[in-house]
């Protein structure tokens, strides 16, 4: 009996999230009617209030679902890369490029921040920073990047990628903006990488002392 109740609750939540996601992704949060998407799910406003509190709570649930899907996609991108460094770069770039996708653009990077506030303060952001920190730690251990505080680098990369996605989502020319953002982001990340042919590159793009001495040698 308890199992049946659990399944019914999960089914109701899933129906409401699916209906809201469709509405938020097409007409936007402001224009989406609670009556329309509750009726579309064959439910009532009472069910929405019971499970999510209000329309804002439902948006939060939709964002959590999309965020989980984005994370799974990004994990597949990094796993398919030929090296850990390339996987890290391509994962970061893929996140930025997702801001071109209509549903993600509208819900995650336009309506989400407008309704729920600064994206850097969302609960999911801590998980993103933790994952970035771990990836950077592994890269540093392998000697693929310079010796840098992983948390600091993770927070800077997270902030830059989020800002880039927001810029794209709100741009009059999103395709052009995306290309500029990706090119710039790749250049920034390159500053972390160790150039094995010349020695480590510091975070400002200069060379380590050994490289400087080599250049000064007659």
Automatic annotation (TrEMBL):
Name used for this protein in its record: TetR family transcriptional regulatory protein
Record keywords: DNA-binding, Plasmid
GO MF term set: DNA-binding transcription factor activity; transcription cis-regulatory region binding
Domain called HTH tetR-type: residue spans: 10-70
Keyword Kinase found: no
Domain of life (superkingdom): Bacteria
DNA-binding region(s) in UniProt: 33-52
Disordered as annotated region, ranges: 197-218
Alphabetized Pfam families for the sequence: TetR_C_41, TetR_N
Lineage: Bacteria, Pseudomonadati, Pseudomonadota, Alphaproteobacteria, Hyphomicrobiales
């Amino acid at each position: 009996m308890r199992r049946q109740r659990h399944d019914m609750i999960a089914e109701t939540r899933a129906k409401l999230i699916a209906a809201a996601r469709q509405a938020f992704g097409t007409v936007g949060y402001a224009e989406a009617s609670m009556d329309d998407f509750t009726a579309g799910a064959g439910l009532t406003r009472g069910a929405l209030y019971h499970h999510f509190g209000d329309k804002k709570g439902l948006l939060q649930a939709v964002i959590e679902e999309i965020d989980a899907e984005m994370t799974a996609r990004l994990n597949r991108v990094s796993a398919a890369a030929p090296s850990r460094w390339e996987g890290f770069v391509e994962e970061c770039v893929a996140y930025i490029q997702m801001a071109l996708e209509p549903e993600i653009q509208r819900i995650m990077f336009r309506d989400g921040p407008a309704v729920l506030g600064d994206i850097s303060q969302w609960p999911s952001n801590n998980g993103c920073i933790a994952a970035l920190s771990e990836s950077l730690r592994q890269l540093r251990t392998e000697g693929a990047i310079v010796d840098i505080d992983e948390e600091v680098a993770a927070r800077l990369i997270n902030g830059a990628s989020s800002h880039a996605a927001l810029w794209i989502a709100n741009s009059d020319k999103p395709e052009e903006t995306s290309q500029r953002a990706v090119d710039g982001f790749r250049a920034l990340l390159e500053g972390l990488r160790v150039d094995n042919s010349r020695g480590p590159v510091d975070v400002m793009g200069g060379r380590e002392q050994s490289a400087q001495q080599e250049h000064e040698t007659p």
